Amino acid sequence: xxxxNRWDAVPKPAExxxxxxxxxxxxxxxxVGSHLPAERELAVQLGVTRPTLREALQRLAxxxxxxxxxxxxxxxxxxxxxxxxxxxxxxxxxxxxxxxDFVPNLLEVRISLAPAxxxxxxxxxxxxVADLLNNYTTLEDAPQTFATADWDLHRQxxxxxxxxxxxxxxxxxxxxxxxxxxxxxxxxxxxxxxxVFYQDLRDAALSNDPEAxxxxxxxxxxxxxxxxxxxxxxxxxxxx
Amino acid sequence: xxxxNRWDAVPKPAExxxxxxxxxxxxxxxxVGSHLPAERELAVQLGVTRPTLREALQRLAxxxxxxxxxxxxxxxxxxxxxxxxxxxxxxxxxxxxxxxDFVPNLLEVRISLAPAxxxxxxxxxxxxVADLLNNYTTLEDAPQTFATADWDLHRQxxxxxxxxxxxxxxxxxxxxxxxxxxxxxxxxxxxxxxxVFYQDLRDAALSNDPEAxxxxxxxxxxxxxxxxxxxxxxxxxxxx
DNA sequence: ATCCTTAAGTGGTTAGACCTCTTACCATGA
DNA sequence: TCATGGTAAGAGGTCTAACCACTTAAGGAT
Lengths: 240, 240
Hints:
Number of domains of chain A: 2
Helix content of chain A: 55-70%
Mean pLDDT of chain A: 93
Number of helices of chain A: 11
Structural class of chain A: mainly alpha
Oligomer: homodimer
CATH topology of the largest domain in chain A: Four Helix Bundle (Hemerythrin (Met), subunit A)
CATH architecture of the largest domain in chain A: Up-down Bundle
């Protein structure tokens, strides 16, 4: 049953190429505003052929990392200014090390979004929300369990909100969230706090009270910022 | 000076391929959950070669339109559920016809986001925000002018907020916003209302009042929903 | 009936050639 | 002298035709 691959999967050239390009950009080897080497030369440097390299470049361009224009040099864009949510996911997916330091930024944005889609979900489908949360009273007290459950909840709330834009935005957080949540929920206080939140939200849904749902969600999101700070400070303490 | 190219640019095969694939997905020719034809066959059908087709497929996969896995058929994903913000942009970019009916969804999300980053921007850089809005008192009363100015304002506010995640999200709205804003600001009431907003926001910035900034922004965002409804009803009326 | 081999079909990658666009240089001519 | 326009180099865009690697399911051995 899954048994945790003993050996890392052999990285495919295309994926590896993308990773190496991103790391080269992030560590300043290809600074923002600079030009990438020509595709033919870059392909040689990376040990892949041009079509493979180009596929990687096309993906990066779609996320806003680079700007490709016929006849001109490919330019490294100011991805924090000109990129889209894809850059968050790409960083989370390819940076093997270090918990990113912009998690608070993500949590801050979540303070604005989560109360809105939670309220809408409770307005439109209170029964569905309540049903979903029934299983949440008996969650196993493990980080991975909470990480998965919490993600599923938010995802379902955006869907029940009836506004697909919420879902699209949340999906952009997916990879980063996966990295973050394991650290966050390693904190026993975080798990305890979320249990209370799930209970409160369920009550709000059962009593058809979108106002209350919005309120308890906002409070939870605000407190999660502080809990995150505690969690990163405890990294390595092994508190589970 | 720009002079509106008399002839449409010749669509490049790669771009055309992407457009045709998306339209085929949107119109149900390739329904959600179905399998795309094999790359070799699909390339023939589209009149391009495999490398070109693959570049388009890679881009679509990055946005969440399709799922590509080695050895298996490429599957069309439920993009509204599993895609990311890129699908919004891709639709706006490739759908030549019809103003999208999910603009209200975007405006609703904006109600949650704009007050937050506006408040943060006024907290961190009130002078910069006020300076920026100085030029907004003499805006030419034209739809295109307002569309550009409004976009620039929101973009700058997300930057001044100090939270890059706001910027990344907003960039995901870029293409759709471009289509929407021209319709929205064709309404004289919309332009008048925004003038008031720019003035109010400038006052809030000058008096170092983030609370007020947040408040006037929220009010503006809420009213924009109604104004949009009026604007779409007036389509073709030519009110400028 | 079960297991394992195997072949067919899929996406992944390679290689090298040719086409198109952009730019910069430079000869030309007002 | 300066504007014009041709030209060549170099960038990305596309094509061609193979071969590699993974997945699946059919079919044979046990």
